[in-house]
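Archive transcription. Copying these from loose printouts into the bound notebook so they stop getting lost. Printout 1 of 2:
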Amino acid sequence: MTPSTRTAYHERLSVPLRWWVQGVMLVATLWLALIVAVPETLAWSVTAAVLGLMALAFLAYGSAQLSVADGTLRAGRARISAADLGTAEALDPEGARLAHGRDADARAYFLMRPYLKRAVRVEVTDPSDPAPYWLVSTRHPDALARTLNGLPRD
């Protein structure tokens, strides 16, 4: 972002600590299985490679970001102008589950993470956009919805 960019909201959808702990425990279990079955050097090499791949996967998956800056909502790689947005609604865990499951529209844009139970549903008002709404996971649905609803719709 340039210094002139004004950010109203920013959040990185990083993988939670419990995933890292469970992943390391899984790799430790792999090491235990290998250390008794193969030469020590091979066991350590395979374990290090698996640990590295797991870290890369978690960092890549958790790199998605939400931001509202200069009248634009960015969710992951997608972006949309505030002029094309309607009402934003903060969803509780049950509402997010239904909106991403039973009540989902296949044409909608989704940026969902299974470790984030709450979300924001943002109506898309641009008639040329095939997506009727965006549904994005967030740790702070009320703050994101308030920010989006407060944007000027020029």
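Printout 2 of 2:
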Amino acid sequence: MEPHEIAEVLDRPLSQQMLARDITRLAYVSTDGTPRNVPIGFSWNGTEIVMCTPTNAPKLAALRANPAVALTIDTEVHPPTILLIRGRVELDLVDGIPDEYLEANSTYEMTPEQRVEWEAGVRSLYDAMYRIVVTPTWAKLIDFETTLPTPVEELLRKQAERKGA
């Protein structure tokens, strides 16, 4: 997929709503060769998805060995809205707590006092964290109104071709 095609998908208003959500599902291949799919907080900076993880997270070795990942951001209503993204990971070790980690957790409902207590706890727990940075290399938005899963789109196209023939 070309960069301008990716940008066109990600710049859609519905995609922007999805990129403002709290949680994505990060899919990758573990070091034992089996698939993993984990929910993880994220933030979107306009060009990259940024997730953060502790320095002892098992996923780090897997991401170093195979940086190809897939992300799913979706809604919990029917019909769902689904944003699918593929890309390659870059790992960035940060002393202390990355701003993106605090940002990704900023939408959770907490009183100002709870937020201060939560942030103090986080800062006392982690001396450093890794930023997991994904630059999209492919993207698809599925809203079940204007876009459908690719196999369904292909079936509908074939049906239309048969009717037109």
